[in-house]
Amino acid sequence: MSETQERPATLSRPIPSPAVSVETKPFWDAAREGRFLIKRCTACGKAHWYPRTYCPFCASGETVWEESPGEGVVYTFSIMRRSQNPYAIGYVTLNEGPAVLTNFVDVTPEALKIGMKVKVKFQPTEGGGPPAPVFAPA
After folding, report:
1. Going residue by residue through the chain (138 aa), what tens digit of pLDDT does each one get?
2. Cα–Cα separations (whole angstroms), residue 46 to 64, 73, 100
């Protein structure tokens, strides 16, 4: 790449500090340690996202935290170009099954594709809150 050519900008955006509740505190504590947690229902066996006490599939309160490698594929996305830097939001289907609404990073808008393999990483948030999970090419 010559000095006059600019590298394409990768997708990124500042992320606000998340609201931490009693129900989600274990998730955010694990995020501070670089671990990605999901919930699994012990009654029906299904994994789910967003972490919550009651299973969205069978309404059981028998859910447990499970560490996930945070790997999956891009299901869909939209690129937002109304800010200084473009950013993309969309869904990742985790290997465990749940779909996660997320931001995509470390990829140019042109390179982001449906079906692309991605992996979770944690991005600092504004205001010193816990880091937020985002997804980058695997």
Report:
1. 444 455 567 888 889 999 999 999 999 999 999 999 999 999 999 999 988 899 999 999 999 999 999 999 999 999 998 767 889 999 999 999 999 999 999 999 999 999 999 999 999 999 889 999 999 999
2. 11, 19, 15
The answer to whether 10 touches 24, Cβ cutoff 8 Å, is no
Using an 8 Å Cβ cutoff, are 137 and 105 in contact? no
DSSP state of 20: P
pTM (two decimals)? 0.90
Q: Tell me how far apart the alpha carbons of residues 36 and 38 are, in angstroms, rounded to a whole number.
A: 7
Which amino acid does the sequence have at 89? I
